[in-house]
Amino acid sequence: MNKGKKLLYVFYRSKISFALLSLLLSLLLVIGSTYAWYTDSDERINRMVGAEDKLAAEIKEDFNQVSGWAPGTTREKKVRVTNTGKTPAIVRLSFTEAFVGFEVDKTDNHRDNAALVNGNGNLKLHEFDEQTEKLIDVKDLSTWQIGNVYSTGDNTHYIANAREPEQSYEYNGNRAILLEAFKLNFKTAKVFDKPADTTGQTDYWYYEDGYFYYSEILEPNESTIDLLESVTLTPKYANQYEGALYKLVPQMDAHDITKVLIHDWSIETTSHVYTMYQDKLVK
């Protein structure tokens, strides 16, 4: 089943600060270079941290299971934060992403008029040598290295020939070419990176120096508005990278509403984030 050879795209959330919410979504290569997006596992672990376990927050997500994801289509992936503790909190989010691609067959296994014909675009099979080669673990980014081997578990292996190491996502910034195929769609008209755009706004996210800060204090049981709404696989997604692994990791910090937040989060007094919070903090 050559065209049914499977590799995973991974959206995986890791633990950070006061909460841990893990969700593994997988994208597998199927016939016709379309993609299926299904839930491989859905694990939620809440860790309560703070004085007498009063401060806690949790990343929440909504997504719809789908049977196919072709280049040029969008899939829902909503990300927000809920205050699950007993005291008011201020929260911020950030994202990291990583990518590893695998060698593609460029020639068929037969000849036409003594000349090699074009390849079929399937991932190239690789003979794994367990004595000299390392396997890729989708959960361990340190194994996402060129030359390492991914196994589907049925004695089928593929060798990595392209990668982007884990790196922070920069809103409206430059991204590595291999990551540009994955477009993160944020909440329309509620995510800003220029102070002037926030005039008259409430309940918004403001991006500064790698973090998305939520503008409002979260009372217990309250949630932010969604930050991320969906992800699009762009129409120009390069065929030679089909079957690659992609990991998107939302990370969350939560803090009480005391003024020590300014120091703990290294917020500059000249920044918009400082202006946004200064009248909301207490001693």
UniProtKB/TrEMBL annotation:
<dbReference type="InterPro" id="IPR022121">
    <property type="entry name" value="Peptidase_M73_camelysin"/>
</dbReference>
<dbReference type="InterPro" id="IPR024008">
    <property type="entry name" value="BsaA"/>
</dbReference>
<dbReference type="Pfam" id="PF12389">
    <property type="entry name" value="Peptidase_M73"/>
</dbReference>
<dbReference type="InterPro" id="IPR023833">
    <property type="entry name" value="Signal_pept_SipW-depend-type"/>
</dbReference>
<protein>
    <recommendedName>
        <fullName>Alternate signal-mediated exported protein</fullName>
    </recommendedName>
</protein>
